[in-house]
Specification:
Distance between the termini: 28 Å
Strand order of the largest sheet: 2-1-3
Number of strands: 3
Largest sheet: 3 strands, antiparallel
Radius of gyration: 14 Å
Number of helices: 1
Shape: elongated
Structural class: alpha+beta
Length: 71
């Protein structure tokens, strides 16, 4: 089971992409109790679903996940 490996936590995920007009868009979210890969994949899915009509699919989508600061 993945839960016992200790790689789950809170991650601040930033996604950068271009829309069809060439404008740079950056979105940031915090994903809770997931692995780093799950946080990145979840953000990529969120962006492609939410911005499917405006995203430039010919350009790469950059997703960066880093541990969230405890507050």
């Amino acid at each position: 089971m993945m839960l016992f490996f200790g790689n789950h936590g809170d991650y601040e995920v930033t996604c950068k992409f271009l829309n069809k007009e060439g404008q740079r868009i950056a979105k940031k979210r915090v994903c809770h109790n997931v692995s780093k890969k799950e946080a990145r994949d979840g953000m990529r899915d969120y962006i492609t679903n939410r911005f499917s009509d405006t995203i430039d699919v010919a350009q790469p989508i950059r997703v960066i996940a880093k541990p969230a600061d405890s507050k």
